[in-house]
Amino acid sequence: MAEAGMADTSAHSIPALLARNVARFGGYPAYREKEFGIWQSWTWAQASEEIHAMAMGFLSLGIERGDHVAIIGRNRPAHYWAMVAAQMCGAVPVPLYQDAVAEEMAYVLDHCGARFVVCGDQEQVDKVVEVEDRIHHIKHVMYTDKRGMRKYDHSRMNALEDVVAEGRAGHYRYQEELEKRTAELTYDSTCVMLYTSGTTGKPKGVVLSNRNIIETAKNSVAFDKLTHNEEVLAYLPMAWVGDFIFSIGQAMWAGFTVNCPESPSTMMTDLREIGPTYFFAPPRVFEGQLTQVMIRMEDGGRFKKWLFDHYMALARKIGPSVLDGKPVSGLERLRYLFGDLFIYGPLKNTLGFSRIRVGYTAGEAIGPEIFDFYRSMGINLKQLYGQTEASVFITQQPDGEVRSDTVGVPSPGVEVRIGENGEVYYRSPGTFVEYYNNPDSTASTKDAEGWVATGDAGFFEEGSGHLRIIDRAKDVGKMADGRLFAPKYVENKLKFYPSILEAVVFGAGRDRCTAFINIDLTAVGNWAERNNIAYASYQELAGHPKVYEMIRGHIDEVNASVAQDPMLSGCQIHRFLILHKELDADDGEMTRTRKVRRNVVAEKFADLLEALYDGRTSVYTETEVTYEDGRKGAIKATLTLADATVVPTEHRMAAE
Question: How high is the pLDDT of residue 629?
Answer without folding.
Answer: 67
